[in-house]
Specification:
Blueprint (H helix, E strand, L loop, with lengths): L15 H33 L7 E5 L4 E7 L2 E2 L12 H12 L8 H30 L6 H29 L4 H15 L8 H30 L6 H18 L1 H19 L10 H12 L8 H42 L1
Helix pairs in contact: 1-2, 1-3, 1-10, 3-4, 4-6, 4-8, 6-7, 6-8, 7-10, 8-9
Protein backbone atom coordinates (compact mmCIF):
# COMPACT_ATOMS: atom_id res chain seq x y z
CA UNK A 1 0.00 0.00 0.00
CA UNK A 2 2.84 2.39 0.75
CA UNK A 3 4.05 2.18 -2.85
CA UNK A 4 0.75 3.37 -4.31
CA UNK A 5 0.17 6.99 -5.32
CA UNK A 6 -2.13 9.09 -3.13
CA UNK A 7 -3.26 11.30 -6.04
CA UNK A 8 -7.02 11.21 -6.65
CA UNK A 9 -7.87 9.11 -9.67
CA UNK A 10 -10.95 9.91 -11.77
CA UNK A 11 -13.62 7.35 -12.60
CA UNK A 12 -12.01 6.67 -15.98
CA UNK A 13 -8.66 5.78 -14.38
CA UNK A 14 -6.72 9.05 -14.66
CA UNK A 15 -6.29 12.05 -12.38
CA UNK A 16 -7.63 15.56 -13.13
CA UNK A 17 -4.02 16.75 -13.50
CA UNK A 18 -3.39 14.12 -16.16
CA UNK A 19 -6.58 15.20 -17.94
CA UNK A 20 -5.22 18.76 -17.92
CA UNK A 21 -1.91 17.66 -19.42
CA UNK A 22 -3.72 15.70 -22.15
CA UNK A 23 -5.96 18.65 -23.06
CA UNK A 24 -3.02 21.07 -22.97
CA UNK A 25 -1.13 18.84 -25.42
CA UNK A 26 -4.17 18.77 -27.69
CA UNK A 27 -4.51 22.58 -27.69
CA UNK A 28 -0.84 23.08 -28.55
CA UNK A 29 -0.85 20.46 -31.32
CA UNK A 30 -4.08 21.83 -32.82
CA UNK A 31 -2.66 25.37 -32.90
CA UNK A 32 0.56 24.16 -34.53
CA UNK A 33 -1.34 22.32 -37.28
CA UNK A 34 -4.14 24.78 -38.06
CA UNK A 35 -2.48 28.20 -37.65
CA UNK A 36 -0.58 28.08 -40.99
CA UNK A 37 -3.86 27.49 -42.86
CA UNK A 38 -5.34 30.69 -41.52
CA UNK A 39 -2.17 32.71 -42.04
CA UNK A 40 -2.29 31.79 -45.74
CA UNK A 41 -6.04 32.47 -45.91
CA UNK A 42 -5.61 35.96 -44.45
CA UNK A 43 -2.82 36.78 -46.90
CA UNK A 44 -4.94 35.65 -49.87
CA UNK A 45 -7.96 37.61 -48.64
CA UNK A 46 -5.90 40.75 -48.11
CA UNK A 47 -4.43 40.44 -51.59
CA UNK A 48 -7.83 40.31 -53.27
CA UNK A 49 -9.51 42.87 -51.02
CA UNK A 50 -6.88 44.97 -49.20
CA UNK A 51 -7.88 45.91 -45.67
CA UNK A 52 -8.18 49.73 -45.47
CA UNK A 53 -6.87 51.78 -42.57
CA UNK A 54 -9.00 51.51 -39.44
CA UNK A 55 -10.73 48.34 -40.62
CA UNK A 56 -10.57 44.95 -38.95
CA UNK A 57 -10.33 41.38 -40.04
CA UNK A 58 -10.79 38.21 -38.02
CA UNK A 59 -7.94 35.75 -37.64
CA UNK A 60 -9.04 32.32 -36.43
CA UNK A 61 -6.94 29.18 -36.25
CA UNK A 62 -9.63 26.75 -35.14
CA UNK A 63 -9.17 27.40 -31.42
CA UNK A 64 -9.31 31.18 -30.98
CA UNK A 65 -10.52 34.28 -32.85
CA UNK A 66 -8.23 37.29 -33.12
CA UNK A 67 -9.28 40.79 -34.19
CA UNK A 68 -6.59 42.57 -36.21
CA UNK A 69 -6.84 46.31 -36.87
CA UNK A 70 -5.18 47.64 -40.03
CA UNK A 71 -3.13 50.80 -40.44
CA UNK A 72 -2.05 52.03 -43.87
CA UNK A 73 -2.75 48.65 -45.41
CA UNK A 74 -0.97 46.74 -42.66
CA UNK A 75 -2.13 45.56 -39.28
CA UNK A 76 -0.62 45.91 -35.86
CA UNK A 77 -0.81 42.17 -35.37
CA UNK A 78 0.14 39.48 -37.89
CA UNK A 79 -0.92 40.57 -41.36
CA UNK A 80 1.73 41.87 -43.77
CA UNK A 81 0.91 42.91 -47.32
CA UNK A 82 3.86 41.38 -49.15
CA UNK A 83 4.15 39.75 -52.53
CA UNK A 84 1.58 38.37 -54.92
CA UNK A 85 0.19 34.86 -54.55
CA UNK A 86 -1.43 32.74 -57.27
CA UNK A 87 -3.09 30.28 -54.89
CA UNK A 88 -2.83 28.46 -51.60
CA UNK A 89 0.21 26.33 -52.46
CA UNK A 90 1.96 29.27 -54.08
CA UNK A 91 1.30 31.35 -50.96
CA UNK A 92 2.79 28.66 -48.71
CA UNK A 93 5.96 28.44 -50.82
CA UNK A 94 6.47 32.20 -51.22
CA UNK A 95 5.80 33.02 -47.56
CA UNK A 96 8.34 30.42 -46.44
CA UNK A 97 10.89 31.53 -49.06
CA UNK A 98 10.60 35.28 -48.40
CA UNK A 99 9.84 35.45 -44.68
CA UNK A 100 10.98 32.15 -43.26
CA UNK A 101 8.97 29.18 -42.08
CA UNK A 102 8.28 30.81 -38.70
CA UNK A 103 5.96 33.33 -40.37
CA UNK A 104 3.42 30.53 -40.96
CA UNK A 105 2.89 30.49 -37.20
CA UNK A 106 2.61 34.25 -36.72
CA UNK A 107 0.06 34.99 -34.03
CA UNK A 108 0.64 31.67 -32.28
CA UNK A 109 1.83 33.05 -28.88
CA UNK A 110 -1.37 35.00 -28.10
CA UNK A 111 -3.38 32.02 -29.28
CA UNK A 112 -1.65 29.72 -26.83
CA UNK A 113 -1.94 32.22 -23.97
CA UNK A 114 -5.72 32.20 -24.43
CA UNK A 115 -6.45 28.77 -25.90
CA UNK A 116 -4.43 26.59 -23.52
CA UNK A 117 -6.09 27.69 -20.24
CA UNK A 118 -9.53 27.77 -21.91
CA UNK A 119 -9.08 24.27 -23.33
CA UNK A 120 -7.70 22.85 -20.09
CA UNK A 121 -10.65 24.21 -18.09
CA UNK A 122 -13.17 23.11 -20.70
CA UNK A 123 -12.01 19.52 -21.30
CA UNK A 124 -11.22 18.75 -17.67
CA UNK A 125 -14.59 20.09 -16.48
CA UNK A 126 -16.37 18.15 -19.21
CA UNK A 127 -14.80 14.82 -18.25
CA UNK A 128 -15.44 15.32 -14.55
CA UNK A 129 -19.05 16.45 -15.08
CA UNK A 130 -19.82 13.76 -17.63
CA UNK A 131 -18.59 10.99 -15.34
CA UNK A 132 -20.66 12.34 -12.42
CA UNK A 133 -23.79 12.90 -14.52
CA UNK A 134 -23.69 9.41 -16.05
CA UNK A 135 -23.89 7.92 -12.56
CA UNK A 136 -26.78 10.17 -11.51
CA UNK A 137 -28.83 10.14 -14.73
CA UNK A 138 -29.30 6.36 -14.81
CA UNK A 139 -31.34 5.37 -17.86
CA UNK A 140 -30.77 8.77 -19.47
CA UNK A 141 -26.97 8.52 -19.16
CA UNK A 142 -26.60 8.85 -22.94
CA UNK A 143 -27.66 12.51 -22.62
CA UNK A 144 -24.95 13.26 -20.04
CA UNK A 145 -22.40 14.46 -22.67
CA UNK A 146 -24.89 17.04 -23.95
CA UNK A 147 -25.45 18.56 -20.51
CA UNK A 148 -21.83 18.24 -19.39
CA UNK A 149 -20.58 19.89 -22.59
CA UNK A 150 -22.92 22.85 -22.17
CA UNK A 151 -22.04 23.41 -18.50
CA UNK A 152 -18.30 23.05 -19.11
CA UNK A 153 -18.44 25.62 -21.91
CA UNK A 154 -20.29 28.11 -19.71
CA UNK A 155 -17.54 27.76 -17.11
CA UNK A 156 -14.62 28.16 -19.52
CA UNK A 157 -16.18 31.12 -21.36
CA UNK A 158 -16.91 32.87 -18.05
CA UNK A 159 -13.33 32.45 -16.81
CA UNK A 160 -11.68 33.49 -20.10
CA UNK A 161 -14.03 36.38 -21.03
CA UNK A 162 -12.08 39.13 -19.17
CA UNK A 163 -8.83 37.95 -20.82
CA UNK A 164 -10.55 38.11 -24.21
CA UNK A 165 -11.55 41.72 -23.58
CA UNK A 166 -8.01 42.65 -22.52
CA UNK A 167 -6.52 40.95 -25.58
CA UNK A 168 -8.94 42.75 -27.93
CA UNK A 169 -7.97 46.12 -26.43
CA UNK A 170 -4.27 45.32 -26.80
CA UNK A 171 -4.74 44.37 -30.45
CA UNK A 172 -6.92 47.35 -31.35
CA UNK A 173 -4.99 50.12 -29.59
CA UNK A 174 -1.33 50.98 -29.13
CA UNK A 175 -1.30 50.73 -25.35
CA UNK A 176 1.33 49.77 -22.86
CA UNK A 177 0.37 47.35 -20.11
CA UNK A 178 0.28 50.27 -17.66
CA UNK A 179 -2.09 52.22 -19.94
CA UNK A 180 -4.20 49.10 -20.36
CA UNK A 181 -4.38 48.67 -16.57
CA UNK A 182 -5.54 52.28 -16.19
CA UNK A 183 -8.11 51.78 -18.96
CA UNK A 184 -9.52 48.65 -17.34
CA UNK A 185 -9.56 50.30 -13.90
CA UNK A 186 -11.49 53.32 -15.23
CA UNK A 187 -13.95 51.04 -17.05
CA UNK A 188 -14.56 49.05 -13.86
CA UNK A 189 -15.06 52.25 -11.84
CA UNK A 190 -17.49 53.64 -14.42
CA UNK A 191 -19.45 50.50 -15.35
CA UNK A 192 -18.63 47.97 -12.63
CA UNK A 193 -16.87 44.62 -12.74
CA UNK A 194 -19.47 43.22 -15.13
CA UNK A 195 -17.97 45.40 -17.89
CA UNK A 196 -15.11 42.88 -18.07
CA UNK A 197 -17.60 40.29 -19.32
CA UNK A 198 -18.90 42.40 -22.22
CA UNK A 199 -19.65 40.07 -25.14
CA UNK A 200 -20.16 37.12 -22.79
CA UNK A 201 -23.77 36.58 -23.91
CA UNK A 202 -23.18 36.27 -27.68
CA UNK A 203 -20.19 34.02 -27.04
CA UNK A 204 -22.37 31.69 -24.98
CA UNK A 205 -25.07 31.68 -27.68
CA UNK A 206 -22.50 30.37 -30.14
CA UNK A 207 -20.30 28.16 -27.97
CA UNK A 208 -22.77 26.47 -25.59
CA UNK A 209 -25.00 24.94 -28.33
CA UNK A 210 -21.85 24.03 -30.26
CA UNK A 211 -20.38 22.28 -27.23
CA UNK A 212 -23.60 20.45 -26.35
CA UNK A 213 -24.09 19.16 -29.91
CA UNK A 214 -20.41 18.38 -30.38
CA UNK A 215 -20.00 16.18 -27.31
CA UNK A 216 -23.34 14.42 -27.73
CA UNK A 217 -22.63 13.55 -31.38
CA UNK A 218 -19.00 12.71 -30.64
CA UNK A 219 -19.83 10.20 -27.89
CA UNK A 220 -22.62 8.61 -29.94
CA UNK A 221 -20.46 8.46 -33.07
CA UNK A 222 -17.53 7.00 -31.16
CA UNK A 223 -19.73 4.29 -29.61
CA UNK A 224 -21.26 3.46 -33.00
CA UNK A 225 -17.86 3.15 -34.68
CA UNK A 226 -16.54 1.00 -31.82
CA UNK A 227 -19.48 -1.38 -32.30
CA UNK A 228 -18.85 -1.53 -36.05
CA UNK A 229 -15.17 -2.30 -35.48
CA UNK A 230 -15.90 -4.77 -32.64
CA UNK A 231 -13.58 -2.97 -30.24
CA UNK A 232 -14.09 -1.78 -26.67
CA UNK A 233 -11.45 0.95 -26.78
CA UNK A 234 -11.68 3.60 -29.54
CA UNK A 235 -8.72 3.74 -31.89
CA UNK A 236 -7.02 6.95 -33.01
CA UNK A 237 -8.88 6.74 -36.33
CA UNK A 238 -12.26 6.38 -34.57
CA UNK A 239 -11.69 9.42 -32.34
CA UNK A 240 -10.37 11.45 -35.30
CA UNK A 241 -13.39 10.66 -37.52
CA UNK A 242 -15.89 11.16 -34.70
CA UNK A 243 -14.33 14.50 -33.78
CA UNK A 244 -14.30 15.76 -37.37
CA UNK A 245 -17.91 14.77 -38.09
CA UNK A 246 -19.35 16.04 -34.81
CA UNK A 247 -17.38 19.29 -35.13
CA UNK A 248 -18.69 19.79 -38.66
CA UNK A 249 -22.32 19.25 -37.64
CA UNK A 250 -22.03 21.59 -34.66
CA UNK A 251 -20.23 24.31 -36.66
CA UNK A 252 -22.92 24.33 -39.36
CA UNK A 253 -25.77 24.47 -36.83
CA UNK A 254 -24.23 27.37 -34.87
CA UNK A 255 -22.86 29.34 -37.84
CA UNK A 256 -25.40 32.24 -37.55
CA UNK A 257 -24.26 32.92 -33.97
CA UNK A 258 -20.63 32.79 -35.10
CA UNK A 259 -21.37 35.39 -37.80
CA UNK A 260 -23.04 37.65 -35.22
CA UNK A 261 -20.14 37.32 -32.78
CA UNK A 262 -17.61 38.08 -35.53
CA UNK A 263 -19.59 41.13 -36.68
CA UNK A 264 -19.75 42.47 -33.14
CA UNK A 265 -16.04 41.89 -32.58
CA UNK A 266 -15.12 43.67 -35.81
CA UNK A 267 -17.43 46.63 -35.15
CA UNK A 268 -16.09 47.01 -31.61
CA UNK A 269 -12.50 46.82 -32.84
CA UNK A 270 -13.12 49.50 -35.48
CA UNK A 271 -14.75 51.82 -32.96
CA UNK A 272 -11.85 51.36 -30.56
CA UNK A 273 -9.35 52.00 -33.36
CA UNK A 274 -11.06 55.34 -34.06
CA UNK A 275 -11.37 56.10 -30.32
CA UNK A 276 -15.16 56.06 -30.48
CA UNK A 277 -17.54 54.57 -27.94
CA UNK A 278 -19.86 51.74 -28.98
CA UNK A 279 -23.25 53.33 -28.36
CA UNK A 280 -25.06 51.67 -31.24
CA UNK A 281 -27.38 48.80 -30.42
CA UNK A 282 -25.33 45.64 -30.45
CA UNK A 283 -27.66 42.99 -29.06
CA UNK A 284 -27.61 39.62 -30.80
CA UNK A 285 -31.10 40.16 -32.24
CA UNK A 286 -30.30 43.66 -33.56
CA UNK A 287 -27.08 42.46 -35.23
CA UNK A 288 -28.97 39.55 -36.81
CA UNK A 289 -31.62 41.97 -38.08
CA UNK A 290 -28.95 44.22 -39.62
CA UNK A 291 -27.27 41.29 -41.33
CA UNK A 292 -30.55 40.01 -42.79
CA UNK A 293 -31.50 43.54 -43.94
CA UNK A 294 -28.13 44.05 -45.65
CA UNK A 295 -27.38 40.58 -47.04
CA UNK A 296 -30.55 38.53 -46.68
CA UNK A 297 -30.91 35.32 -44.68
CA UNK A 298 -27.89 33.91 -46.48
CA UNK A 299 -25.77 36.53 -44.73
CA UNK A 300 -26.20 34.59 -41.46
CA UNK A 301 -24.36 31.69 -43.07
CA UNK A 302 -21.47 33.69 -44.51
CA UNK A 303 -18.12 31.93 -44.33
CA UNK A 304 -19.73 28.48 -44.31
CA UNK A 305 -16.93 26.69 -46.16
CA UNK A 306 -13.93 28.40 -44.47
CA UNK A 307 -15.43 27.72 -41.02
CA UNK A 308 -16.06 24.08 -41.90
CA UNK A 309 -12.55 23.63 -43.31
CA UNK A 310 -10.99 25.00 -40.09
CA UNK A 311 -13.30 23.57 -37.44
CA UNK A 312 -13.42 19.97 -38.71
CA UNK A 313 -9.65 19.30 -38.62
CA UNK A 314 -9.22 21.38 -35.44
CA UNK A 315 -11.86 19.31 -33.62
CA UNK A 316 -10.45 16.07 -35.01
CA UNK A 317 -6.85 16.84 -34.00
CA UNK A 318 -7.85 18.20 -30.59
CA UNK A 319 -10.05 15.29 -29.51
CA UNK A 320 -7.83 12.52 -30.93
CA UNK A 321 -4.77 14.01 -29.17
CA UNK A 322 -6.76 14.35 -25.96
CA UNK A 323 -8.04 10.77 -26.09
CA UNK A 324 -4.55 9.48 -26.92
CA UNK A 325 -3.14 11.38 -23.93
CA UNK A 326 -5.80 9.96 -21.61
CA UNK A 327 -5.18 6.43 -22.88
CA UNK A 328 -1.45 6.87 -22.27
CA UNK A 329 -1.97 8.04 -18.68
CA UNK A 330 -4.57 5.34 -18.02
CA UNK A 331 -2.14 2.63 -19.09
CA UNK A 332 0.63 4.27 -17.04
CA UNK A 333 -1.57 4.31 -13.92
CA UNK A 334 -2.58 0.68 -14.38
CA UNK A 335 1.04 -0.43 -14.73
CA UNK A 336 2.05 1.56 -11.66
CA UNK A 337 -0.82 0.06 -9.63
CA UNK A 338 -0.10 -3.51 -10.77
CA UNK A 339 3.62 -3.18 -10.04
CA UNK A 340 3.38 -3.17 -6.19
CA UNK A 341 0.68 -5.90 -6.31
CA UNK A 342 2.88 -8.20 -8.40
CA UNK A 343 5.84 -7.53 -6.09
CA UNK A 344 3.80 -8.36 -2.97
CA UNK A 345 2.48 -11.58 -4.56
CA UNK A 346 6.00 -12.81 -5.30
Amino acid sequence: MSGQSSAPVARDGITPLQQMVASCSGAILTSLFVTPLDVVKIRLQAQKNPFPKGKCFVYCNGLMDHICVCENGNSKAWYKARGHFNGTLDAFVKIVHREGIKSLWSGLPPTLVMAVPATVIYFTCYDQLCAALRVRMGERAQEAPLLAGAIARVGSVTVISPLELIRTKLQSQKQSYRELTDCIRSAVEAEGWLSLWRGWGPTLLRDVPFSAMYWYNYERGKSWLCERQNTREPTLAITFISGAVSGSVASIATLPFDVVKTRRQVELGELQAMNLSSRASSSTLSVMSRIVAQNGVGGLFAGFLPRLIKVAPACAIMISTYEFGKAFFRKHNQERTLGPLQTSNT
